[in-house]
Amino acid sequence: MAQQEFYNELQKLQIKMSDHRRQQASLKNQEMLKTHEMKSAELTIHDIEETKPESCYVAVGKAYYMKPNTAVVDRLKSTVEKLTNELTVVGNSKAYVEKQISATESSLTELIKATPQALS
C-alpha cells in the first residue's frame, strides 16, 4: 500500500470515527433529556395522586386552564409511556453507534498494524 493511499484511508477512518463520536454524544444528550422529562412527569403524577385534587391547572402557552384530575394524570401517563418507548429506541441507536465505533477502531488498528512502513 502506497503511503498516500494509507493516509487517505486513515483520514477516511478518522472522519468516520469523528462522526460516530458526534452521534454518540447527540444520543447521550437525547437520552438525558428524555429521562429528565419522564422523571418530571412521574413525579407530577405522584404528587397529583398523593394530594388527590379534584382538578388541576394546565399551562397552554401563557394561559392556564382547569382540567379534571383524571385527564391530567392520563395525559402524563401517556407521556411517560411514549418517553419510555423513545428511550428504548435511543438505547438501541446508542448500542448500534457503539458497535460502529468499535468496528471503526478495529479497522484503524488493523490499518496501522498492516502498514508500519507508512508511518516512518
- How much of the sequence lies in strands comes to 5-15%
Strand ordering within the main sheet: 1-2
Low-confidence stretches: none
How far from one another are the termini? 14 Å
Number of strands: 2
**How would you characterize the largest beta sheet?**
2 strands, antiparallel
Family: Belongs to the prefoldin subunit beta family.
Pfam families: Prefoldin_2 (PF01920)
InterPro entries: PFD_beta-like (IPR002777), Prefoldin (IPR009053)
GO molecular function, one term: unfolded protein binding
Molecular structure report:
- It is rod-shaped and about 75 Å long.
- The longest helix is centred in the N-terminal third of the chain and has 49 residues, at 3-51.
- A two-stranded antiparallel ribbon has the order 1-2.
- The chain is 79% helix and 10% strand.
- It contains two helices and two strands; from the N terminus they run αββα.
- β1 and β2 form a beta hairpin.
- The chain is mainly alpha-helical.
- The model has no long low-confidence stretch (mean pLDDT 90).
- It has helices at 3-51, 69-114, and strands at 55-60, 63-68.
- GO terms for molecular function: protein folding chaperone; unfolded protein binding.
- Keywords: Chaperone, Coiled coil.
